[in-house]
Amino acid sequence: MAKKGQKFSNYTQTEKNKYIEMYQNGTPSSYFERELGIPANTIRMWQYKANHPELCTGKKRGQRKEKDLTKEDYKQRYEILKKYRAFLKEQREKR
Predict the structure, then answer these.
(1) Is the separation of the CB atoms in 11 and 39 below 8 Å?
(2) Domain boundaries, the chain
(3) Neighbour tally for 42: CB within 10 Å
(4) Quick one: what percent of the chain has pLDDT higher than 70?
(5) What Cα–Cα distance (Å) separates residue 51 from each residue in 9, 15, 27, 55?
(6) DSSP line for the chain
(7) Which residue, among 28, 17, 24, 18, has the nearest Cα to 50 in the 3D structure?
(8) Interior CA angle at 59 toward 65 and 76, to 5°?
């Protein structure tokens, strides 16, 4: 788990590919941890994502980023909210 004030390293895709290739060619994971300061699990995760790109979209299950939403999506959401408000109003009037 990340700690407050912790700094994260950013690696370019070429660096990641180089380290993945080194790992696949038999470089021990202890080398990455001691010499480069990269946890072995990070290398393994990069390797997994490189081998299974269709499973690693970067999105959480079933969620879309707000910037991926179109104008039609917002209109659809608005219509759903209007119907829900009308439904709630009817329920209150029945009481």
Answers:
(1) no
(2) 13-94
(3) 16
(4) 85
(5) 22, 16, 18, 9
(6) -PPTT-------HHHHHHHHHHHHTT--HHHIIIII---HHHHHHHHHHHH-TTT--SS-TT---GGG--HHHHHHHHHHHHHHHHHHHHHHHH-
(7) 17
(8) 35
Structure tokens, 51 = 């081998």
Q: What mean pLDDT comes out for the span 72-85?
A: 93
Identify whether the C-beta of residue 43 lies closer than 8 Å to the C-beta of residue 24. Answer: no
Tokens of 45: 């995760």
**Radius of gyration for the alpha carbons in the chain, expressed in angstroms and rounded:** 23
Inter-residue contact 56 to 49 (CB < 8 Å) = yes
